[in-house]
Amino acid sequence: MDDSITYLNNLVKELHRCLSSTEPQKLLSEEKPNIQCITETTKPVTPGFTAGQCSKSDITQLLCKIHVPNSKAEKREIRPIENIYNTVKKPDMKQTMSLSVSVTKVREFNVPEVDCLFHVSLHQPNKLWISYSDGNLVQTDLQGNEVQKIKTNGGSEGYHTVTQDWDLIFTDRKKNVINMITQDDNITEFIKTGEWEPLSIHSSHINGDLLVGMNRKFEEAKVTRYNKTGKELQFIQRNNKGQKLYDMPHHITENINGDICTSDFNNTVVVMYKSGQYRFAYTGQKSGFRPSGICTDVLGHILVCDSDSVHLHDQDGQFLSLLLTRQQGVDIPCSVCVDDQSNLYVRGRTIHEHIESVQVSPVKIVIL
User: What is the C-alpha to C-alpha distance for residues 257 and 207, in angstroms, rounded to an integer?
Assistant: First the structure.
């Protein structure tokens, strides 16, 4: 077909050349173009389909077969979901945790001269940063020995966090700045938040970003994301319908899948996708839910303190259980965090008015 098309194009050019001649006598004397017949092409034959039949043996030869032995099914114990939810293995997980709601005393742990703890941040191995009512921020070891103390303008919010490089970062609500204390104990103003009052802060264990819960004149609230250098990357304030998401996000954390989890004074836990899209909200199992401290573990579970218990959820917001309650001897938990060894630190007090540690096997619950 290509050869035929080339031939016809050349023939057309030859005919146009003859027709454009201005000397008719010369045209008549010239040899006429040799016009050849075009070779016939073969018409394609469309294939047809004829329905057929196949047997089980034909399918078996192609796909093999499954043999089910003639035996009785194994009886398995049916357990409550709160006892088996965490048996699924997740990537990069050091060990599988199996939580139980039975609580036993492990050891005593006191923080001397501290009467009212509010927020706990994990520092280097075996060290904690603890804030309390008068604005002091104290670093202690796990025996309660004070390592250092600094004076801040913080309050009862989750206003301090520790970075991947073990630097302490805390907010100043009076000056609207975010401060950093490096390993050599230098304090610098890291980020200025303008007219927005920084309430809560969390340093991402995924990429080092800072998540900050903010409030402006008690009328507007948002969550802002900064990178390691203090550059603003994102802010989340309203949902896709233009409705406000927060009143006062006073505790904030991040899940292993990048979800942003906040406790708000509007008695709601708000969870957003990393992109800033609304994911879900949790308002408790009964009226009077007052969420405060919030954290997540290596499995993505969300733990949030209420006035009389610690609520446990999976990463999709499904309620699993009340981890600690007044019936188990724990009162007024308001801060919670988990370390890499699955030790769960809870700020609270016991009904018997002494500070102790309890264990939810094999996860340690340290009451501060």
Answer: 12
